[in-house]
Amino acid sequence: MFGALIFMNISSNFRSYGPVMLVLLLVGALFAFAMPEKPTSPESTDVDVSECASSCGLPSHVDLSSGDYPVQRTEAEWKERLTDLQYNVARQQGTERPFENPYNANKQTGLYRCVGCDTPLFSSTDKFDSGTGWPSFVQPLDERTLGETRDVSYGMVRVEVHCNVCGSHQGHVFPDGPKPTGLRYCINSASLSFEEAESPEAVKVLVKEWYHAE
Description:
Layout: H1 3-11, H2 18-32, H3 49-57, H4 75-81, H5 84-91, E1 110-114, E2 120-123, E3 127-128, E4 136-137, E5 146-151, E6 158-163, E7 169-174, E8 184-187, E9 192-196, H6 200-212
Antiparallel strand pairs: 1-2, 1-9, 3-4, 4-8, 5-6, 6-7, 7-8
């Protein structure tokens, strides 16, 4: 992994903050991993599951091809790295079947990485059962590594989310999640890889290793 180099490339997009603020952002991110654990099971939320499933189940029609992402690959390289389903979801903004995906019911402790570049995106401590059939999280590990794009396809207004390191489509985020954020990141298993860890503390170690990788 090229965590340190990628992080520097991402930070270049935040020039307006100035060098001092970038340092503070990095220190703050690392400090957050040393904070006490968040609840391992976020509260459930009263949402219209059928409506949520309809919103999650439709593919995205946003164009991410022009993004200046730190990790760039040719189409041939993407197809060699990913399965057909992963390629359709991550690179063509598709979606997978609800409930029939490996991480929806996954309750193991661990780290969810982007399938396209291994960037840490979500922790199992922020995962909850939304009842929609897709892995759902209350927040990403680092908002700087998860980009957002307005998606107005199918007559809806949705917020598409993607990896800010390689541009791989992840899913959508909705304002109907449980505490503490009130958000529901509806993510495709096909866009993720999962690394099991012994404890939440071990998850933090994996994340720190990525940021410090040379």
